């Protein structure tokens, strides 16, 4: 029981910090991503009026190798910030897996970035239990990416172009493998 209480306390502190950081202006003087002017919706995602440069973000993979978004330049990305303890996140992960399968032969990659404190073990267990086979394991246990992007909660998903600029955002769960969204992505490939 004390482990559960400790986990709840740590998560409360993290999300409290996220809330406070969300209230601060971006360090670069630019407005937070969540406040960028929006264009129209396309499938589950809301497109930005114009592509926006993302701040430098760092994370690791399941083998603890460091990555940043620049490591994926040349690919269209769907960065999905999630956690295994988040029910809406868990619900949408199979559709992200199916999306990755459908676009596997293209220059496209789903980057599922887990904020789980216990790292790859939790994520891999969830993938096995859920039948997820096509998604990589990427980790941000300190939630620094969420804080940098000022995401208001989980899941938070960003469509990113080949140059590393945000094209669209979605806060909350979605079904990602619908034809309308796939057509949108293919337009950027």
Keywords for this entry:
single chain; 189 residues; alpha+beta; Glutaredoxin; nine-stranded mixed beta sheet; 26% strand; globular
Describe this structure in words.
The chain is α+β, with helices and mostly antiparallel strands and 189 residues long. It has a single domain, classed as Glutaredoxin. The protein is built from five helices and nine strands; from the N terminus they run αβββββαβαβαββα. The chain has helices spanning 2-23, 87-102, 120-130, 144-149, 179-188; strands at 38-42, 45-53, 58-61, 66-68, 76-82, 108-114, 138-139, 156-160, 165-171. It has a nine-stranded mixed β-sheet. β1 and β2 (45-53) form a beta hairpin. The longest helix is centred in the first third of the chain and has 22 residues, at 2-23. The radius of gyration is 16 Å and the shape is globular. 32% of the residues are buried.
SSE topology:
Blueprint: H1 2-23, E1 38-42, E2 45-53, E3 58-61, E4 66-68, E5 76-82, H2 87-102, E6 108-114, H3 120-130, E7 138-139, H4 144-149, E8 156-160, E9 165-171, H5 179-188
Parallel strand pairs: 5-6, 6-7
Antiparallel strand pairs: 1-2, 2-9, 3-4, 3-7, 5-8, 8-9
Q: TL;DR of this structure?
A:
The chain is α+β, with helices and mostly antiparallel strands.
Q: What's the tally of helices?
A: 5
Looking across the biggest beta sheet, what order are the strands in? 1-2-9-8-5-6-7-3-4
Give the percentage of residues in beta strands: 25-35%
The oligomeric state is single chain
Rg over CA atoms, rounded to whole Å, is 16 Å
CATH class: Alpha Beta
CATH topology, what is it called?
Glutaredoxin
Shape: globular
- Biggest sheet architecture: 9 strands, mixed
Helix/strand order, N-terminal first: HEEEEEHEHEHEEH
- State the domain count: 1
Unreliable runs, pLDDT <50, ≥5 residues?
A: 4-29
